[in-house]
């Protein structure tokens, strides 16, 4: 008999939407649930097999949480290539593809990112997709047309139209919770191999939170549309 899926405590709390918070207030931190499997891939063959399996298992059209990370450059006018691509197709599974270790983006992963049937959701997502185009020639005509910026989606709702949103600020506004944006991890070396557990958790949480926020915003939008 399959065991009942247990949600983390913060997902079981009654969410007080719109609760005001101060910058000094210590908020509970959103964490990646133990039920969410993190799948780490760093070679071409493994990446191709995982993406082919994922493509077959997805019911189209579909939505995935999306993000990228790269090693910071401290040289003026120079920017390193994207090192990892994160995909979260469901709230119980996130993929971390370390493309810097592969040296390129395998075609099955390209196909997923470029698919017009798979909507990529994330914060300031167009910047990531343009960088994918510059770094790896991933066709931006397809990626941009099949993407959705969470900040813009939030602003389209009258109750969230009052500011420019980031992942952290939107998490606070929607759930009265913080999300770990450790500068030490964020500005670390994403080309290091293997990635640390802290890096994998940080990267997976960004993609997970993007999908989680998207689903919550869609519910809010539906509720508002049903009101007389």
Automatic annotation (TrEMBL):
InterPro entries named in the record: 3'-5'_exonuclease_dom, 3-5_Exonuclease_domain, RNaseH-like_sf, RNaseH_sf
The keyword Magnesium belongs to this UniProt entry's keyword annotation: yes
Subcellular location: Nucleus
Pfam families: DNA_pol_A_exo1
Record bears the keyword Cell membrane: no
Coiled-coil segments: none
Residue span, 3'-5' exonuclease domain: 38-222
Chief location category: nucleus
Signal peptide range in chain numbering: none
Keywords associated with the record: Exonuclease, Hydrolase, Magnesium, Metal-binding, Nuclease, Nucleus
Function, in words: Has exonuclease activity on both single-stranded and duplex templates bearing overhangs, but not blunt ended duplex DNA, and cleaves in a 3'-5' direction. Essential for the formation of DNA replication focal centers. Has an important role in maintaining genome stability.
Family: Belongs to the WRNexo family.
Name used for this protein in its record: 3'-5' exonuclease
